[in-house]
Specification:
Length: 224
């Protein structure tokens, strides 16, 4: 599902060039639940941005669902994100003035799904994550765990092939983190491919495999 070979990435700051990724090799198979760990500055965020088609890489090859990802226009990158990827963030990234159901339906709006169908599908997804009773509530009326469940439902709305979760439990207490991770594992058990970036060893332990980054290269766990 995901195959990276020799991925490099540098950023220029003034007259200096900082090489963040120095030849990353990793693969994630279809239906896997994989954690990516690494200390601050190891390249996790840069790697996730490349995986999520939010940033281009300098060298190497990236194949996503068998398709070579290279030299994408912004429009094509956005299309591929809509077709293939769902995102879950530490800060939830919900729209505060929209209800839970409206937040979940957003990806469907961008896919030009009719309003009535958007409502039906968003309610079904909220039921899937145990929050149908909260469909008409605003994010400000929800706990952190509830907001993350809404975010997970939103990530599933467009039927992605892969979910990328960036510190999905980072803003949650330990019990709520367990609940959210249980939900992600349940979805993975239904065939969803997931990549979870985390600094928490117990979250990584709940995944099938841990890829460890160090100083811009994969230290261990890069291949099945």
């Amino acid at each position: 599902m995901i195959d990276l070979r020799g991925i490099t990435k540098s950023y220029s700051t003034g007259s200096q060039t900082l090489q963040v990724l120095k030849g990353v090799d990793l693969a994630v198979g279809s239906g896997e639940l994989v954690a990516i760990m690494g200390s601050s500055g190891s390249g996790k965020s840069t790697l996730l941005n490349i995986l999520g088609l939010l940033d281009a890489y300098d060298g190497g090859t990236y194949k996503l669902d068998g398709k070579l990802v290279a030299n994408l226009s912004e429009r094509r990158a956005a299309e591929m994100r809509r077709e293939l990827l769902g995102f879950v963030f530490q800060s939830f990234n919900l729209i505060n003035f929209k209800t839970a159901a409206e937040n979940v339906a957003l990806p469907l709006y961008y896919q030009k799904v009719p309003r009535k169908e958007r409502t039906v599908r968003s309610h079904a997804l909220l039921e899937r994550v145990g929050l149908l009773d909260w469909a008409d509530h605003l994010p400000s009326q929800m706990s952190g765990g509830q907001k993350q469940r809404v975010a997970i439902a939103r990530a599933l709305a467009a039927n992605p092939r892969v979910i990328l979760a960036d510190e999905p439990t980072g803003a949650l207490d330990s019990k709520t983190s367990e609940d959210v991770m249980s939900l992600l594992k349940e979805l993975n058990g239904e065939g969803m491919t997931m990549v979870v970036v985390t600094h928490e060893s117990d979250i990584a332990a709940a995944c099938q495999r841990t890829i460890r980054l160090r100083d811009g290269v994969v230290e261990s766990g890069g291949y099945v």
